[in-house]
Design a protein that fits this description.
The protein has 198 residues and is of the alpha/beta class. The protein has seven helices and six strands. A six-stranded parallel β-sheet has the order 3-2-1-4-5-6, with helices on both faces.
Length: 198
């Protein structure tokens, strides 16, 4: 809080020194959120991953999952432009749920296909859809902050023994995000939409 200013006094332990362009450094906070969500999900090596909501957080989750060795990544959104970016940065499949409401239906066969779902939209419908397509004993990580009440079928959660975990912000992942960005391992340039003067 209080970071939207020209000058800020903070404790030395809160400052992570790194050399990189501001355009890349701006992604440290949202990438930290995604790294924390990935830690909540567990090992992603060889996993089949669903990301619902392909905005900035969803897109960074695609990058994190790809970097962590996910075998398959499917991203969904209601708009086409974020899906184009998702394809460009590592999603194997990008589905427009608005134009094709049943696009995830094939993934529900056999009690579900995905090992992990990251729900980044905050939509109750997206969470319900994730429950249908996550395999038994799979994991759903809720990152998107729902507006209002969200209902879901708990019987599906129980019968498939799905782990539902919340993920809110980050802690130790901030230094990791700065290090990853400074190294250039993540090309976040496709996510930069505009640079505006202070």
């Amino acid at each position: 809080d209080g970071g939207f200013r020209e000058m800020l006094v903070c404790d030395e332990s809160q400052a992570i020194p790194a050399e990189m362009p501001s355009e890349r450094a701006a992604f440290a906070e949202p990438l930290s959120v995604c790294l924390h969500a990935a830690h909540q999900a567990g090992d992603l090596l060889g996993a089949r991953v669903l990301v619902t909501g392909a905005g900035p957080i969803g897109a960074l989750l695609v990058m994190v999952a790809r970097h962590a060795g996910a075998a398959e990544i499917v991203a969904t959104d209601l708009a086409e432009s974020p899906l184009v970016v998702s394809r460009r940065i590592g999603a194997d499949t990008a589905l427009n749920i608005k134009d094709h409401p049943d696009a995830l239906a094939p993934y529900a066969a056999g009690k579900g296909r995905f090992d992990v779902a990251f729900e980044a939209s905050g939509s109750g419908a997206a969470l319900a859809g994730a429950l249908a397509v996550v395999r038994p004993r799979g994991t759903i990580v809720q990152i998107g902050n729902p507006v209002g009440n969200t209902s879901m079928t708990l019987s599906t959660l129980l019968s498939k023994e799905i782990t539902l975990r919340g993920s809110f912000r980050f802690h130790g992942e901030f230094a990791q995000a700065v290090s990853v960005l400074a190294s250039g391992r993540f090309d976040v340039s496709p996510l930069l939409t505009e640079v505006v003067p202070l």
